[in-house]
Please model this.
Amino acid sequence: MVAEVKPSPNYGERKDGRRPDMIVLHYTGMPGASAALELLCAPGSGVSAHYFVFEDGRIIQLVPENRRAWHAGASCWAGETDINSCSIGIEIANPGHDYGYPDFPKRQIAAVTALCRGIQTRNTIPPVRVLAHSDVAPARKQDPGEKFPWRTLHESGVGHWVKPAPIVEGGPLLALGDRGDDVTAIQEQLGEYGYAIPVSGNYDSVMHDVVAAFQRHFRPERVDGVGDASTRATLRDLLATRGRVKTISARARDLGRLAS
Ligand SMILES: [Zn+2]
Model:
């Protein structure tokens, strides 16, 4: 599946021998794919990823899976802050929001999906830990963004996803400046899912960014950082279903048990 190996010098060892149990998806955010690939392999650039996926679906491996690539930066998920030590990073060639943000071509998405499935067979990656860079760094990052077809990946056994609750105009909204128990409840639920968010009861800029990140991944029809009824219902749905989705390796173990 990997067309080519182009070793990047930008990696280290995973902390305490941590085994990867997360996939973080990125877009390159640069006008040209080749320039992005060069940067990820340039000595001294300080950035890398395990894999790079071109628009035409070609996959390049830059860093071995058991090494710690430098793709996540200052990030947090489920209380863990060294995301590079626990994750495998995939850079998907797309110019991003600053350069017109084109759709992801079908061939590219098929390649990303196949790559993730392969990673899932070599590592134990729970579906809820296939994430966007924006999920683990909501204040800094938007990638891979609201055009990324998480549903398509989910239908191929990659990641956790539920059909978003429909947007109802005129419903109750929570937004910047609001405070109270309803805000606290959403903060607790976002935190329970894995997002890094203080439970303060204040709808502050941190909360706005986290809700926007949540929407980019799970309710992409409208990304505005507003806690509307659709966003809240989608979050509740995700929490209710996340335990039911088994990892591919858990499914394989079950099948093995049935067979023996
Ligand atoms: Zn990124």
